[in-house]
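Ticket #260: bound-state structure for zinc ion.
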Amino acid sequence: MIWDAHTHLSGVPGDTPEERLTRLLEFADRMGIERLCVSMGLNWSYDPPPEDLRRQNDEVLRAVRRWPQRAFGFVYLNPNHVEVSLAELDRCVRDGPMVGVKLWVARHCNAPELDPIVRRATELKAVILQHTYVKTTGNLPGESTPMDLAQLARRHANATFICGHTGGNWEIGIRAIRDCKNVYADLCGSDPTAGYTEMAVRELGAARVLYGSDAGGRSFASQLAKVLGADIPESAKKLILGENLKRLLTPILTKKGVKV
Ligand SMILES: [Zn+2]
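RESOLUTION: The complex was predicted; output attached.
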């Protein structure tokens, strides 16, 4: 059983959201990946204004409504527009089929503007996928580090966070989130370097590590290799490839009538 915690509609062939998700699922089928978490629209922007946020979320809603048992939407929010973000949470998660939140690079995630968003998401049992990176060449102005996420996670012990890309520089990222039990490491979106998954399992435990790809930005195969090629027990691979994500999403999926 393989579930992918982190995919997008960009970089996938097709003119409509439905076509793109259909193609993405064809590629997933080749690798035995059953289910995908999907966020963000056909075109991205770093700091989307309200109308662009709604457009991107509408595109994901169209895509996941075509494949309700196989693809789970994460609502894209922007903490520079808190009221709009809360309204989008209600529209897409409370009243719609989405099951998680995606936050990208508009604002550092340790900012107080995140607090009402995290509280509302947690009330709705939605998990929060926060992009994190530590770039050697310098981050974007609003781009979060895993240290920022650890600060946010300490303020919200009941919330569930996914540390997107494990900070990119995963040796720093794993250490940054190590003592935050409500933060999960997402392996997606970097080269399949030997030692990455092994260190995550050693320092966090296999129950806190999630397979994700960042497809279409990365291939499913290269990202699966991080898990399949890792020197860890078979039981740990099972947790990382699907069982952990299934456990995190089961409460909200069940609420929405999706068979898990
Ligand atoms: Zn992403």
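RESOLUTION NOTES: The longest helix spans residues 234-255.
TICKET STATUS: resolved
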